[in-house]
Design goal:
single chain, 72 residues, alpha+beta, Alpha-Beta Plaits, 4-stranded antiparallel sheet, 4 strands
Length: 72
């Protein structure tokens, strides 16, 4: 499983809940975590198949989140 590591602007439990609703409806990402304690609010996401970082970043940006790849 390849994990995508993204820096985000997700900083509150309410935003995490919104992200959960988004990713729950997006079946290609089955596992993910977010670290609100980290200064980069790191999102780690594991797509079910090879998925390009820019597609995940685009999905998040389309729904009002900022994201950039830290590692992929």
């Amino acid at each position: 499983m390849n994990w995508l590591i993204l820096k985000t602007n997700i900083a509150t439990p309410e935003q995490v809940q919104s992200l959960d609703l988004l990713l729950s409806s997006f079946t290609d990402i089955t596992n993910w975590t977010i670290d609100l304690e980290d200064c980069d609010h790191v999102l780690r996401a594991a797509p079910t198949f090879f998925y390009k970082e820019r597609e995940v970043v685009g999905l998040l940006q389309k729904h009002g989140f900022q994201a950039e790849v830290l590692m992929g």
